[in-house]
Amino acid sequence: MRRQLRGFAVTAVALTSVLSMAACAKDTGSTGGGSTSAAGEGCKFAEKPPAAAATSSTSASTTEKVDGSALKVGLAYDIGGRGDASFNDAAAAGLDKAKADLGLKDVKELTAAPNEAEDAKVTRLRQMASEGFNVIVTVGFAYAESLKTVAPEFPNVKFSIVDGSVEGASNVTPLVFAEEQGSFLAGVIAAYQSAKCHVGFVGGVETPLIGKFEAGYLQGAKAAAPEIKVEKKYLTPAGDFTGFQDPAKGQVAAQGQIDAGADVLYHAAGASGKGVFSAAKAANVKAIGVDSDQYNQTTVAESKDVIVSSMIKRVDVAVYDFIKASAKNDLASLPKVFDLKSDGVGYSTSGGKIDADLQAVLEGYKAQIIEGKITVSDQPTS
């Protein structure tokens, strides 16, 4: 009997030790997102980056009064236009801010159709310029060819192109971004939010531009958790732009990645991202938005509880700054690239899923990128 009691006591002590060790392991793995901080236990994390130094900034440029009432501003959207909850809505937000701040009175908005002929874009831009619109923003690299034709015909019109450039056209201002840098941080977020150390990426159209999102996301996820597994899927090949406006196809692709084991999905798919969110919502996994703070987008409000963050691509800032610089006749003041250093890309914290510990990790990586200690590739590996 005494031997049995002694064995029982040894077993109890051992069990207590195991439980204590488990509790300690859980505590040490708590750096993650909000109420899901323990979920990151699925990954073995790399050493955290050093804490970022505190920075300060001035807002003098944002409070400067500029009168844009004499401008006639045209905005040529990519497919999807206003209401895509992503890329185009970000541009629309910049236009709306310019209306409010700069006193714009004459504005025209037109939208591209999926897989439209190049002549349709030329006609759209020529129509705006012929009607006297002297500042025209084109949203998306697909307008590059049409600008080669139209911009020389209207040398006094200030054109800009988001995500592209036109060689030799002095009246076309490129508004380009370091999407790979913002996507790197999205990859870090995905790693820390994943319970399985298995995440996914859904791209709209397989182009070099969307490849930048994929490249940064994969690099960030691997930097945070070297053994993480990443699924990827493009909805359409290069040249077929319906991949940016097909939520059903986005939902199927996302479901395939969820079935494969991914529990955090990042999309760079325009309006097709609505389908990614729907799949994540149905499967009770997590998602990361893109371009706009998609947690606050009304068109995807039914899925907001699964959106842990968004990679913010400040198209709104670029559009607003271009219009403002046009009103001041000072286009040279615009940054060459809207990157982390210029706050042209970043991440959102809406919804409370990014807690203070994870934010400190993100700011540490951000500082290393800005300082040049981490170089983020804009080319997918394989």
From TrEMBL:
Which residues, if any, are the signal sequence? 1-25
Protein name (Swiss-Prot/TrEMBL):
Basic membrane lipoprotein
State the organism of origin.
Actinosynnema mirum (strain ATCC 29888 / DSM 43827 / JCM 3225 / NBRC 14064 / NCIMB 13271 / NRRL B-12336 / IMRU 3971 / 101)
The upper taxonomy is: Bacteria, Bacillati, Actinomycetota, Actinomycetes, Pseudonocardiales
In which domain of life is the source organism classified? Bacteria
Q: Does the keyword S-adenosyl-L-methionine apply?
A: no
A Pfam family that this protein carries is: Bmp
Its membrane topology, per UniProt?
Lipid-anchor
Q: Name one GO cellular component term.
A: plasma membrane
> Where can this protein be found?
Cell membrane
Please indicate if the UniProt record lists Lipoprotein as a keyword.
Answer: yes
Q: Which family does it belong to?
A: Belongs to the BMP lipoprotein family.
Q: Which UniProt keywords apply?
A: Cell membrane, Lipoprotein, Membrane, Signal
Coiled coil residues, start to end: none
All residue ranges annotated as the ABC transporter substrate-binding protein PnrA-like domain in the record: 78-372
Q: Which InterPro entries match?
A: BMP_lipoprotein (IPR050957), Peripla_BP_I (IPR028082), PnrA-like (IPR003760)
PROSITE patterns, per database record: PROKAR_LIPOPROTEIN
